[in-house]
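Long-time lurker. I teach an intro course on protein structure, and each term I like to show students one example going from raw sequence to a predicted 3D structure in token notation. This year I'd like something fresh instead of my usual example. Would anyone be willing to generate the tokens for the chain below so I can use it in lecture? Attribution to the forum is fine with me.
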Amino acid sequence: MAINLATKYATQIDEVIHKGTLTGAGVNNDVDFVGAKTVKIYSMDTAPLNDYNASGSNRYGNPVELEDTTQEMTMTQAKSFSFTIDKTNAVDSPEGVRDAGKALQREIDREIIPEVDRYRLAVFANKAGIRTFTENTAANAYTSFLAANTAVTDEEFPVDGRVAFCRTSFIELLKKSTEFTKNTDLAQDQIIFKGQVGMCDGVAIIAVPSRRMPAGVTFIITHPMCAPAPVKIQDYKIHADPPGIAGHLVEGLIYHDCFVFDKKKVGIAANYGVLEALTAEMTAGGETGKGKVTVSGNTSGAAKLVYKTAASSLTVPSLGDDLTAWTDLPADGVISGTAGHKLCVAAIDADKKAVGASAVITVVVGS
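-- Reply from a regular --
Happy to contribute to a lecture. Here you go:
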């Protein structure tokens, strides 16, 4: 017997995702993906202005045919989970500890919602029309924010509805800024969105845990008109005593995505303000002269991992350094090297600029 929670809580599940995500204030549902995996969006250009001529046949100017551009959006993010709660384990645990319904809610809160936020924020950062690399300190955090917000305003995007997703450590720097404390309009009576901690320069400030932010990004200013974020399927089920299992089988699927309109990407400003700290380890491989590199840390939103080796000294890159000359780290982490040499791993953005890096470690290879 299956209990379909998407039916039981038909009016609740979507609300849970909407209210639970911190990024809900920065997206829209303007694109209809019903019955389609891929949607093509048409954007019309505009005509140039002319000086009106009070005589002649084309007094308004020579007519030009309006051109258009197209953008394809294809759904890609289908995430699922499956776990069991055995009846014998449940009965041997304190009452409520292994409750299937509570376990499902915990899965949504701790896995689904953070994953949706991480993905959307990575899309914002990678598609942002305004991208800056300013290492943030208490001395420049406020001015960095103002400069980014001004850049969005200069693109003639409305201030009303604009939101800023800020890493919690960046908000801490803002609070230490004397300029911010003198000029801030941060006030609790202005709270509108989940996670919002106030306002700054007319923009709602939403605090985002560091692990949800893209690697190196300290804040993203955007407007919901820039990014449609469809959620096509939210299917959560609890199966009671399914064949082969004494207890509950809990399964879930969320089919979602996030896109940025090509014509509106200039309404998004992403600031890379910290070099993400990565941890790299290397172990000897099975083949002579090869070893395996394992990297941990926040690499969300990074285009890829790269590495560099040197015989003796090696310098860790700084935020925003061009790492075009570095070598791509294979997906399996297996590389060739010389034992005793030095190695550093870095995360780069789409422009091959450093957004994260490990400390320098010693190369270990098989002999």
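Some talking points for your students: The two ends are 57 Å apart (CA to CA). Residues 212 and 231 are 19 Å apart (CA to CA).
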